[in-house]
Amino acid sequence: MARPDELVFAPLGGVGEIGMNLSIYGLGNRQQRSWLAVDLGVSFGDEEHLPGIDLIMPDISFLEKERKNLMGLVLTHAHEDHFGAIIDLWPRLKCPIYATQFSAALFEAKCAAERNAPKIPVTIVPSGGRIDVGPFNVEFIPVAHSIPEAHALAIHTEAGTVLHTGDWKIDPTPTLGRPTDEKRLRELGEEGVIALIGDSTNAVRDGRSPSEAEVARTIIDLVKAAKGRVAVTTFASNVARIKAVADAAKAADREVVVVGRAMERVVQVARETGYLDGVQNFRSPEVYGHLPQDKVLALCTGSQGESRAALARIANDDHPEITLNRGDSVIFSSRTIPGNEKAVGSIINNLVLQGVEVLTDRDHLVHVSGHPRRDELRDMISWVKPQLLIPVHGEALHLNEHAKLARAAGVPRVLVIRNGDLVKLGPGDPGIIGEIPSGRLYKDGTILEDSKSRAVVERRRMAFSGCAFVAVAMTAQGELVDEPEVDLVGIPEKNRAGEPLDDIVFDAVMSTIEGLPKARRRDADALAESVRRAVRAVINEHWGKKPPCLVHVLTV
């Protein structure tokens, strides 16, 4: 008798980290499986550790090998950490993509704004709808989040049903879109759920996330109380917050000026898809300077300190149309993502130095998270009654706290896993049964690099200790044609005693060449290696750091 098909799960991104989400589900046996991918997102480069890297994406080499068995890619929602890698990586997969209307429209607008974006078809699924993707029947269950049309996915298979929550929270009074569908989730729990793959972002926070309706009331109060100009910055994708800001402006008799391309794009898509029906028209930045100070509100990108975004340019007094002065106010309707604290702090300090009043979530309820706190996680578990819970979408601490909470809530099996772990979900006892290649790709300008890329490693070294360049011209007989050229980049000009370092390096190069036997001087590679070692050693002696050294030997 044939063994029943196994249902397996593997995260290729988004576990042990927040961002870069990619999950895959497989149905079949060990020789042959059909695969379903859920989300394909990015995380963002850190200039300190990854200089010049804009985006980080999951390694999809496994899916490339399994391309003929990849039935499709399903999107839970349209945040960058869930769909931001598609334009770069889809050409390697060319699988069908399924998303609801807003996510599809925002993706289309993103493609239109990108140079040379490939034509990527997306099949639109109604909210609450069900589709067959190969042997997987996927149901889109509405959940509240900080972007329209976020969905948990109930993945129905012959081996059982899995609930992949995506990003969610419980908000009984969302200002826009549908609340989390408790009724359908309870029904699923009664039907039987073998595994809950759940968002862990706020698993360390007690209680419940406040509602968007409370934030909307606070923003109205703050905008009404403001005397001068007001600027509000928030995540561009948070359409509910954009609507709240628009309502606050209307209540205070102010015009809304939209500043920043990402914000303009989301506003356009939200209007096209009906999410801003009844909301007044917004104005373009050119009219900002012509409106009275107490009649204008600038809605800006840049809540995370992005150097090229609108708010950073305004704070640096570098924006062509938008200025702020003493007595004006800026509302940060956002929370700083870990890693962005320095950049955001710099903007806030620049604004304060200009006499601008800065209002943040430290003092006012101007932001709420789109992720569930501990009481909400308990609610989800009680509704769905999973046999197994796997925490995802979080760093190690978040995953472990979610796991402890699940065990305390009576979930029979809880598994904490890492990116690349292949987990058997059913039938029978669940557990880790193997490992799948996983890793990171770096978007470096227009090029995708492997995380072990020499360019990235060398750039990190150069960022720390500069670089020495030496050019030497030799005759075929091993004699110097002219004096060597020495160029030190990113290295101090003088040592502690005040002596020029380039003179010290030049002397080291000369003495090294002169000290080599003729045979080694005629060997360009041997000569370059001897000079390289000598230069690094002498700089280390005088500076305490060993920079990379590039030696070019020209034989004439």
TrEMBL record:
Domain of life: Bacteria
InterPro entries noted in UniProt: Metallo-B-lactamas, RibonucZ/Hydroxyglut_hydro, RMMBL, RNase_J, RNase_J_2, RNase_J_b_CASP, RNase_J_C
CDD domains: RNaseJ_MBL-fold
Family annotation (Pfam families): Lactamase_B, RMMBL, RNase_J_b_CASP, RNase_J_C
Keyword set includes Nucleus: no
Keywords: Cytoplasm, Exonuclease, Hydrolase, Metal-binding, Nuclease, RNA-binding, Zinc
GO molecular function, one term: RNA binding
Domain Metallo-beta-lactamase: residue ranges: 21-219
NCBIfam families, per the entry: MG423
Protein name: Ribonuclease J
Organism: Bradyrhizobium rifense
